[in-house]
Structure prediction request, 368 residues.
Amino acid sequence: MMLPSEIKRETLIKSQDATDVRFGKKPAERPIGAYVQKGVINLDKPAGPTSHEVTSWVKKILELEKAGHSGTLDPNVTGLLPVMLGDATKAVDALLTAGKEYICLMKLHTEVPEKKIKSVLSEFTGEIFQKPSIKSAVKRETRTREIYYFELLEIEDNNLLFKVGCEAGTYIRKLCHDMGLAAGTGAHMQELRRTKTGPFREDETLVTLHDLQDAYIAWKENSNEVSLRKVVSPMESGLSHLPRIVIRDNAVDAVCHGAPTKRLRKGRHKCHASLRPRGTEDAPASSASASGATSESQEAPKRTRERRLVRRQRVEHSFDEAIGEVPHDLREDPHDRRFDRLPDFHEARLEAFGAEDDLCERAGHCRA
Prediction:
């Protein structure tokens, strides 16, 4: 039994290359200032304070301007509360949708046979309908959530201890209430602890507020950053559950300036005409005279379009060189591109720059 984020992904290697160690640093080797500003804490939230209060205390302890938590826990709930620090707060949304695991103590209002309990747990496994309780942070409307698994840990009298893996946004106290209704006795949640969220676990990275305070004081007063590096992890560790792509060094600049890494699926579109640059489409002879525009006023936009096309061709060329897909006989002239000569190659280039439909439409010979 595991969450979707725990499923092992296959790594596809298109080519081998080495990186230049003179540039950049490994996340764990950043200077301590940048390390904290781009860090994440796997915090063990205590019972009592709200998640927002705990995050505020973290900011005060580390003297930071920004910090944000992922997945709010009720005041009486304990367990994992990932807190992103400084610049890493931009990545909070990537953790919000990750699956969660809880250990819950539920109290049945009357005794129920174990066979009946297991039947109810099985009934609530999979996709369920759930309406948030009255005290909730979202709009009260019925929605679907997925329960990945249940594991019955212990039964004692009317008390039921179980482990549940669920989709983000599932209200466990409402789940207990609904299961009590299905069992015909009624039930409510007594205690709850979160044990997994995304890539975070109850392991050596789990720290308390006291651990964080001690580590920060040791760094400030004794310049000992060893403890601080233990309680704060690089933000990349909080994103390890997401799919990733490794690119060559010479592709970094192109990707940072908007060149996506997604490629077009083969055979999606087929074009059989040469690509004409923007602004060279056939136009009615009377269009210029009807608008009263002079030849000089028409030349300026045309030159601008040509410069944009040249810049775009350079970015495309550098990106394709980085992934090793530029044919040796590619002409340098950006106006001379033939779809019928290299259809699959050009289709991929169009998709990579998000202009496939627009360019095909201007070419006038695009068919699905």
